[in-house]
Specification:
single chain; mainly alpha; Fic-like fold; 72% helix; globular
């Protein structure tokens, strides 16, 4: 996992690297408990580091996933199916992360427009 991330760090988009991290950590399942929370936190950290800054906004990507796991689970299943066919296809996971990132950033706009 780490070798693949390092090899693709600069040549893949930040969303792709974060999606790969999220999928692969869940796939490896290194802990008895807390694998999902850990993979979501590490993926978010990877996204921030790859972008070069801490993402603004409330309702962070990991928080949003924890509130509605269904799209995340479907994206994991899609990546697992592609892997079983000998491919790495994280398209669905990237779409989920992109949507959640957009929602996180909208909270910044909402705060900027708020009077209170």
């Amino acid at each position: 996992m780490c070798d693949c991330i390092n090899e693709n760090w600069a040549k893949s988009s930040p969303l792709h690297v974060a999606a790969y991290t999220l999928w692969r950590m869940d796939w490896i399942h290194p802990f008895v408990d807390g694998n999902g929370r850990t993979s979501r936190a590490v993926s978010y950290l990877v996204l921030c580091v790859r972008l070069g800054y801490v993402l603004p906004g409330t309702q962070t990507i990991p928080e949003q996933i924890s509130r509605n796991k269904d799209p995340y689970y479907r994206a994991l299943e899609a990546a697992d199916q592609a892997n079983a066919a000998g491919k790495i296809d994280l398209t669905e996971m990237e779409k989920v992360l992109e949507s959640l990132l957009a929602a996180q950033l909208v909270s910044v706009i909402d705060a900027a427009k708020s009077k209170g």
